[in-house]
Amino acid sequence: MDKKVYYGEYTLKHWIELLIKKDLVLPPYQRSFVWSESQVKGFIEGLQTDVFVPPVTIGVCNIGGENHNLILDGQQRLSSILLSYFGVYPKKDAFLRDIEDSPMADGSAEEDDEEPDLEYINWSLRMFANNGPVEQNIRDSILDSQYNRINYGVVEEFFETRYIPFSYIIPNIDDEAEQHEFYSTVFRNINILGIPLNPIESRQSLYFLKTELNNFFDPECCKNLKIELVGKKQNYDFVRTISILSQYKKDGRFNRLAQSYKPKMEKYFEEYIYSVVKDKSDGMFAKFSDIFPNKEFEPRLEKLEMTLQALDYNRLHFRSIIDADIYMFGLVWIIVLEGKELDFTRKDELINRLQRKIDNIKKDESHKSSPSLLKHMRKRVEDSINIFRRYALHTT
Hints:
Shape: elongated
Oligomer: single chain
Number of strands: 10
């Protein structure tokens, strides 16, 4: 890919000016600030002692006919500079995460997992930039109810005499599709100082220039579906369902679904998103435009929403990933992948059959205790599809 890359460095004060004037902006998918107060302090102390700091990566991206300088890598660093400059740190309780930002359920939370979750808060450097470009306006907007006042041990001279390097990417691309493919590759290879994007942000980074796909990867009709895992409600993951079903659509075998991806299922989901964005036929997934002629997926999602309402899914309580998978894999297969309808006159019979299958599965202690194992997930896919096939009507 033809591109130009420039390298240099700016003083911390210049970085701050660029941010509050919105000459640099965060891409829509980058929402979360995850560094703790101690990490911010440690970063600032490191700058004071001239430790090596990886360059911030900026990319020129044409969005809606206008060029924008996007922060591709460096949000945590630049946010820390802003916080230290204004001498504050956001209070967690003042910037609570939206309920939609809850983790996506995949069943692993039901198993023994001592890996701690990253503490995301609903704050980003946009909070300051949106009150710019006048510095005093930003200071006036900082409320003690939202921020703790922190002494980072720095003075004005610090921001004028310390530097952070940058790499500045300018792709020589006029075609928006090529531009998207280029930046998708960039996004997939960036890791922010060892702290990755959370799964949802990582996925969104692959299609944020394809706004027409927003409702496909995050359909409105599924946002209210919750799964109870170890006492916490997690979101139903439509991407997980549609990606697995798309592989089954391609090769027709249950026993190969997500093969070798158990330790890295998020990578599998990203591979699927990438295949949809590029609409390619090679690889493990069925071609998007083969499933949805002319890429018109909205009518089937509308039918899915109508079916969810007709089956009273809004009243269901998914008590585990097992319940969710049995209820959803077959439903999404019939309605979204196959474009068929269900026989609602047999609704009660269908629901009873689904519940009996769930009860039988949970009698298997191995399946119940480790539902995220691929062999168990594949069995749920097969069982759910076979049940729903009994209640499918004509192709539309």
